[in-house]
Amino acid sequence: MKILLTNDDGLHAPGIAALEAVAPRFGDLWVVAPHQERSGASHALTMNEPLRIHEHGRQRFSSTGTPVDCVYLGIHSLLGGVPDLVLSGINKGANLGDDVHYSGTVGAAREAALNGLPALAVSLATEGGGGTPHFESAAAIACKVIAEYCARSLPSGVLLNLNVPNLPLSDIQGIQVCGLGRRHYDPWVEERIDPRQKRYFWIGGAPAKSGMSEGTDGWWVSRGYASLTPLGLDATQRELVESVGTWNLNKG
After folding, report:
1. Which pTM does this prediction carry?
2. Which of 24, 53, 141, 147 ranks highest by number of CB atoms within 10 Å?
C-alpha cells in the first residue's frame, strides 16, 4: 500500500514526525508537506505563482504551496502513481467543529477525498496548556484508526477527522465516533501601524467559552476521549431544495 503524508504545520514540525515514525508499518510512505507553516489555509490552491519543490531524502519533499497543493502534487506527479491512503497531520491544535472549514490539515484530507481516496486528518488538542504536546499519543490513536480503516471500506468522497486530547496515552479514555459541534470564536481584529506609518492588522480570536454540545467532537475531547468524525463532500441542504425551488426566480 502506498501512503501519502502531509500536514499544515510544515515538513519539520514535530507532529508530522510522530506520524511519519509509525505510518510505514502500514505501507510505502511518501511525504509531501509545506516548507513552512500554512495553518488556516483551508482548501486553498496556488494558481497565480509557480510551486517549488525541494527533496529531503528518499520520498520526502517540501513544497512552497499549501497543504492542498501538496496533496495535488503528490497524487498527480511526485508519487508516480495514486496513493491508497492520504494522512494529514498531526496538527498542533484541535480541528473541531467549525474548524474543519478553516483547517489546512482537514483541507488536505478533503482534497484526497475529492480524488476518491481514503483520507484521515489527525489533530492534537493542545489548547489550554497541558504541558508538552503528546504527539506520540495522537500517533498511537491514529494507528488504531488506520488499522480499522485499511480493514474496512467507506464510500468514496468520505474523509475521517480525528482529534486526540493532549494526554499520555494511558490517560485517554477511548475513541468516540461522533458528529461535529459548533466551535465559535470570539471576533478579534487588532490594528497596528508599521514604521512607515501604514496600517496593518492581526485577526483571529480565541474559542468562545460556551463550550460544545453534549455528544459532539469537542465535548468528547474535553472529557479525555479521542473523537472521530466522518466528513462528506456534499454541502447541499437537500431538505431545502424543494422549498427554495418554489421561489419566483424565473419571473419578470
Report:
1. 0.93
2. 141
